[in-house]
Amino acid sequence: KQEVTQIPAALSVPEGENLVLNCSFTDSAIYNLQWFRQDPGKGLTSLLLIQSSQREQTSGRLNASLDKSSGRSTLYIAASQPGDSATYLCAVRRNSGAGSYQLTFGKGTKLSVIP
Amino acid sequence: DARVTQTPRHKVTEMGQEVTMRCQPILGHNTVFWYRQTMMQGLELLAYFRNRAPLDDSGMPKDRFSAEMPDATLATLKIQPSEPRDSAVYFCASGPGQIPTNEKLFFGSGTQLSVL
Question: Cystine design at A30: which of A49, A55, A88, A92 (Cβ 3.0–4.6 Å)?
Answer without folding.
Answer: A92
